[in-house]
Design goal:
The structure is a single chain. The chain is of the alpha+beta class. It folds into 2 domains: 2-57 and 281-415, no CATH class; 87-269, no CATH class. It is built from 13 helices and 11 strands. The chain has helices at residues 2-21, 23-58, 80-83, 91-100, 153-158, 167-174, 217-224, 245-260, 275-318, 320-328, 333-369, 378-404, 408-415; strands spanning 66-69, 104-112, 116-120, 123-133, 145-148, 162-165, 183-186, 189-197, 212-216, 232-239, 271-274. Strand 7 and strand 8 (189-197) form a beta hairpin. Helix 1 packs across helix 11. The chain crosses the membrane at residues 27-47, 292-314, 335-361, 381-403.
C-alpha cells in the first residue's frame, strides 16, 4: 500500500513538473479534456437546473389537476388539421361539469388571452399577463395573496370589475403606496384593486404571477362574448384526493361527449391534459437534452483523450533513460506502468477540474444576472471527476504499457 502511495506521489510530481516545464504543450493537450468536461457538465447542470425549477414551480400544485381544452399539452396522435377544427370549451360546459361530475374538488373556468398594458393615473406598466378566471382558481393554482383578498363567488358570477394584481404590477403602479381600493384602468375600464399577490420570482416558462393580474372571467365574457379569436377558454379541474384518476378522466370524457352529442364512432374533440402527464413529457425532454449533450460532448472528450495520449507518449520518450535506470535497479513492469498511468489520470483530472471550475463560474455569473438559479450538483461534480479520470485511464494505458515493456539496456542506451 505504501508503495502505491509513494507511486501516486511521484506521479503527481511528474505531472506537475510536466505542467511547469512544458506549459504550452500541456495546456493544449489538456484543453480537449477541459472543453469536453465543461460541455458535458454545463449541459447536465443546465438541464438539471431547468428540471429542478419546473418541479419547484409545480410542487404546490396537485399533479392530478386536469386542463380541459381543445389543445394538447404534449404530442398527440390526432392530426394537426383535425385538432384545429376542435371547438373551444364553453362556460355552459363548465357549469354542466360542475353540477354533474362526482369527484371534483375544485373547478375553474379560465380564459387565456394576450398581454395588455395597465394604468394608474400617469403611470403605466406594459405587457401584463391577463388571467381572467372564476373564483375557485385560487384553490387550484398556488396563488398566495399578501394584501387584501381574492374575488369571491358572487363577484365572479356577476363579473364585477375587481382585480388582484401581482407584486411587480403593484410596485410599478403604486410604489410604496397602499394599492388596495385604488382604481386602475384596463381595457378602457376602471377596476378596483382588492388584493396584491406575494412575490414569487420568475417562473420556468416566464409565467410569473408577479407580472399578472386576476379578475372575474365573466367581466371579459360580457365584454367580448364567447367567440372572440383573442380568447382561448379552458376548464381546470382538481379531483378530490385519493380518487382513481383514470376513472375520473373517463367520467369527465363521457359527460362531455354526451353534452356535445358525439356519436360512439366519433373521436373526442377535446383534450384532457393532466399535469402528471405534462411532467412525464418534461422528463422525456430532459432525457433527450441530456442524450444530445452527451453525444456532442463526447467528441470533445475524444479530442481530449488524444491530447492526453500524445503528451504521455512524449513523456515516455523524454524519460526513456530514467525508465531504463529504474528497471536496471529492479523496478518491476507494473511499477513503471502504474507510474505513467497515474500521471495520465492526474493530468486528465486537472483538466476536468478546470472544466468544472469554468462551469461553476458560469453558473454563478448567470444566476446573478438572470432570475434563475443554475445549480452545479455534487452528483455532477463527481461525474465530471470520474469522467476525467476515465479519460486519463483510457488515454494513458497504451503509453504506460509501452513504457513498462522497454528493455532496460536499450532504454539506457537510447537515452544517452
Amino acid at each position: 500500500m505504501l508503495l502505491y502511495l509513494r507511486l501516486l506521489k511521484e506521479s503527481l510530481a511528474f505531472a506537475l513538473n510536466a505542467l511547469r516545464n512544458n506549459k504550452l504543450r500541456t495546456l493544449l493537450s489538456l484543453l480537449g479534456v477541459t472543453v469536453g468536461i465543461f460541455s458535458i457538465i454545463a449541459v447536465l447542470a443546465a438541464v438539471d437546473s431547468m428540471d429542478k425549477k419546473i418541479k419547484e414551480d409545480l410542487s404546490d400544485m396537485d399533479l392530478n389537476t386536469i386542463y380541459l381544452i381543445r389543445f394538447s399539452f404534449g404530442p398527440s396522435d390526432v392530426p394537426r388539421w383535425k385538432r384545429e377544427q376542435f371547438p373551444d370549451v364553453t362556460y355552459e360546459e363548465y357549469e354542466y361539469l360542475r353540477r354533474s361530475v362526482n369527484g371534483i374538488d375544485k373547478i375553474s373556468f379560465n380564459l387565456f388571452t394576450r398581454n395588455e398594458n395597465i394604468k394608474y393615473e400617469d403611470k403605466t406598466v406594459n405587457s401584463i399577463r391577463i388571467k381572467p378566471s372564476t373564483d375557485e382558481f385560487i384553490d387550484i393554482e398556488p396563488i398566495k395573496v399578501e394584501q387584501g383578498r381574492f374575488f369571491n363567488e358572487s363577484e365572479s358570477n356577476s363579473g364585477v370589475p375587481v382585480i388582484v394584481i401581482g407584486s411587480e404590477v403593484a410596485s410599478g403602479l403604486f410604489g410604496d403606496t397602499d394599492p388596495l381600493g385604488k382604481k386602475i384602468r384596463l381595457y378602457g375600464q376602471k377596476f378596483t384593486v382588492i388584493g396584491v399577490l406575494k412575490k414569487e420570482g420568475q417562473g420556468m416558462f416566464g409565467d410569473s404571477n408577479d407580472i399578472a393580474v386576476f379578475f372575474p372571467v365573466n367581466f371579459l365574457r360580457r365584454m367580448y362574448g364567447d367567440n372572440s379569436d383573442m380568447l382561448t377558454p379552458a376548464i381546470i379541474m382538481k379531483p378530490v384526493k385519493g380518487i382513481d384518476i383514470d376513472e375520473f378522466k373517463a367520467m369527465v370524457t363521457q359527460k362531455l361527449r354526451t353534452f356535445r352529442g358525439l356519436r360512439p364512432d366519433e373521436m373526442n374533440n377535446f383534450f384532457l391534459n393532466i399535469l402528471s402527464g405534462f411532467t412525464d413529457f418534461i422528463d422525456s425532454i430532459v432525457g433527450q437534452l441530456n442524450f444530445v449533450g452527451w453525444i456532442i460532448s463526447l467528441f470533445s472528450l475524444l479530442v481530449g483523450g488524444f491530447g492526453i495520449a500524445n503528451i504521455m507518449f512524449v513523456s515516455v520518450k523524454e524519460r526513456t533513460n530514467l525508465i531504463g535506470i529504474q528497471k536496471a535497479l529492479g523496478a518491476k513492469r507494473r511499477f513503471i506502468l502504474f507510474q505513467f498511468l497515474f500521471e495520465a489520470i492526474i493530468l486528465s483530472i486537472i483538466g476536468g477540474i478546470v472544466g468544472m471550475l469554468l462551469v461553476w463560474l458560469c453558473a454563478v455569473i448567470l444566476s446573478s444576472v438572470l432570475d434563475f438559479e443554475f445549480v452545479l450538483s455534487t452528483q455532477n461534480i463527481l461525474l465530471g471527476t470520474g469522467l476525467a479520470g476515465l479519460i486519463g485511464l483510457v488515454s494513458g494505458i497504451l503509453p504506460a504499457i509501452s513504457a513498462s515493456k522497454l528493455d532496460p539496456v536499450e532504454a539506457i542506451r537510447t537515452g544517452m
